TrEMBL record:
SMART domains: ANK. It comes from Caenorhabditis elegans. The keyword Repeat applies. SUPFAM superfamilies: Ankyrin repeat, P-loop containing nucleoside triphosphate hydrolases. Keywords: ANK repeat, Repeat. ANK repeats lie at residues 490-522, 523-555, 556-593, 626-659, 660-692, 892-924. This is ANK_REP_REGION domain-containing protein. GO terms for biological process: protein localization to ciliary inversin compartment.
Amino acid sequence: MRQPLSHGAHGAPLDGAPRNVAMSKFLEWFQQANSRRLEIIGKEHSGKTWFARKLSEVSECVASHFCSHDEPQSSEPPTVIRSLGEQLMRRFPNLVLPRLTTVTLLEDTVSALDHFLRLPLETMPSTSKPVFLVIDSVEDEETQVLVEMLVEILPPWIQIVTTSRDRTNSETELLELHIDSDFDKFIRLKLPHCHVEEVREASDGSWFYVEQLARAVELGMVPSDMVPPIGVEKMMHLVARSLPRSFADIVRLAKTSRNRPTRQQLLAVSQMLVSRDISVLEKDIRIITSLIGTASSENPSEIFHVPDIWFQLIGEENFRCHTAWAEHYKTKRRKSAQDICELAYHLSHSTTNPLNAVKTLQSVGAGNLVLRCHVIDLPTTALLKSAGARMEENNYDVVYACSVGDVSYLDAILREMKPVPMDICFGLLTAAARGNIEMCRFLADHFPHLVASSCCGEWNALRSAACYGQLEILHLLLEKGVDVDECGHSDRTALRAAAWSGQLAAVQLLLQTGAEVDRRDSEQRTALMAAAFMCHKDVVSVIIQYGADVNAIDKSGATALHLNLSNGSKQEENSETTKLLLEHNADCKIEDANGRVALHLAAYHGDPCLQLILEKHPIVDVMDNMGQTPLMLAASQGQLEAVQFLTKTAKADVDAIDNNGRTALQWAAINGHPEVVEFLCSVGSDEGHKDNDGAVALHYAVTHDHVELVKHLTNQHTVEAKDRYGQHPMMIAAANGNLKVLEYLMGISDIINQPDHEGRTALSLASMAAHTSIIDLISPRITDWSQRDHDGTPLAHTLILSNLIFVAEVYLGHGANSSDSDAHGRTCVHVVASTNDVAAAKMLKRIGGVNFEAVDRGGRTALMTAVWAKHVAISVFLLDSCGVDPNRTDRQGATALSIAAQIGDRDLVNLLLKFGAEPEIKDSMGRTAMDVAMISGNEPIVSLLQSVNGSSGSSGIGSSVPNSPLDASKQRILKATSSLRMPHRIDNNNH
């Protein structure tokens, strides 16, 4: 489902990687519309394509195309044009575009574009709000020229957004992606163990660098505490060391395939190139996909896709790969014409002897192919022709001939070849839309059986002519016997098409000819509904005169009046259409599937006819299925005039509540409408009202960093109000990182330190959300820096366990104590020891004042904890960098060496001995480390310690050994982190 364009405008992260700065700049351009084109530029790997994909997901984006450097055909004008055209037809069901051949689009691009896009789109009614399309990676000159042409031919209500490395047009608006706060947040999110400044400098602003390195760290392929390599290439070489040895061949195969293969296909072909067992290759591909790919590592039928930059790293050497792919297509049982062409492509680029290549192609039926244009590239075409494939001498385009209306040209084509029926059908659609009467007459005479045919199950010539108001064509087709109500699978008749397009004369002609006025389409909508939705008053008037049912309902229970009001337009024509429907007894009391009557929709959109509709249905507080009144809907959408009318004139209940217990004031606060909030407060709306979640309006308002929004809702009572989770508004503002609002609220109340029902405070919520600026702001007010949860775990521990190292450093730097202990007496150093987190340990050492010799309730040091967990890296750090004493004993008298002896870890025993661990130290039961090793059955450790001691150990071996400090308590730490969850505040389904 597409997301609204405003998504992210208030700082919400997108897929865990915020680009709020860029999105804000984009919104500013789109809403002001000073230029029809926006260029997004940035250095390589600066996230241009990622951002373009985010833009393609919003509802106002009608089409998008992504050019790939590794797939040259993706940047060719015919590919771009067709891609955009197909998406526009899906977005606008009444748009019909001619199917032009590649040759036409290549050889006569200007004229082809004119007929393919400009003419069809010119007759389209403009949308109620601007829309845009996205073209990513506009790098080569050919694509740049195409974009300039699109700017000229597309209607003014379609804007164009392109991305490229450098600016291509000095007259366009510019949005430059560079290193900003969004990038810093991304680094902290993906690489919490690293210094932001180091990564920023090493990556040179490359989002790919951060994403790729983070994935390698997450999979354990690269140590988390390593120094970030300088530059993208060095980072890739570092990651490549962890990849299987077959990596280069497998990636080259993917590159050579031309069309990205599935993992299944890649596995089949790689066996021909790589001498490894199939199970090993399958594992290799899975590892490569997990580490550098973009597809799921679990689904073998998904496309194997890696970023283009990896192709550059592994270089060319593609001859062997082409040979492998050729073998794959050669051994395929059932070969389509496309398979034969792919085989020819790989043979022509391999080291295969040309004569053998020709014989191979002949054996698979290449001689039966008829080529209408060059296939893939010239070497491929030449090889196919050598194998007997026939190249058509002409490059006729039947659809294009019909589009331009050149009858003599089409006649010449028909003398030379037998056209495909679908081409004639599409040609007739195009000729009918263009009003080419002679062409339509010619086609109707020569192909009478196709005149009433539907292309793709929906469009026929009659509907095409009606949609574009071509009266002569309508007369001709009706004279030829076409049924006036003929329609395809969508059940959309010519009358409905003409009504939707506002073609008054065509509507009159079709009705006069006997068109069924209330014929329903697949959505149960009539021509009247289509005209009402598009606000075509004159068309609505004519259809009503022919007896249309004004109160017919569609599948969603909506009438023509519902659809007219849902358009949301406040133009005069819309109001006139609404009045006309009401004059002809449109029933304002009919409820749609959501239980909404006309008054609900009019209030929601702030319709100028709101008063007139209320007069027809004077129940101002009527509720829909969610219990929402018209006032609530108007308030939720910021329709101030409608809110003022409903409250002052219509006397709506300002404190009415819906099924969730929310009032109009709360809905205005939820959606961030300060003017509506101010007005509702001025007329007596209760700002202290609590909904079913126990939240007041201020709880919702503080999710926006908008001080003016919260001012009118703020008083001593609301600031300190707690919802059913025990959270007050300051906590929510802190959790959302809304600095300005929190600062304002702190000037009114000192409740900042009060926790919720789970023991969380504003400080802990802000910290867990990585809002370090909030920590800076509230630190002078904090009275309890330990911030323990219900399990007694200090916040510093939780931050470290959550990999929020940079947040922990800020938190500890402001006043938190690294010596704060949990219910088992463990401090921060025990936590980093238990998780083998060297980066966090370095952070603790950096802030200073940390006791690395601290003991828990069992008398165990961090070194003992690390040894119990078999963590060598952190043990080395504690011994070497922190200089901890390896001979400290716990309450049982056990040393770290005794623990290593019990668990049988030879590496740790050697490490401890190297740093001065004493083998002769006895525990409380008189046992040395060697005794413990003997009890535990670790003979290699016994031998090692004997060689160190030069003795057979002590006597008096007991029967018990030290207990691990992690046995029961580790789970409690993990539980503590999982409990830090923010409850969902707003049910989006209720908006």
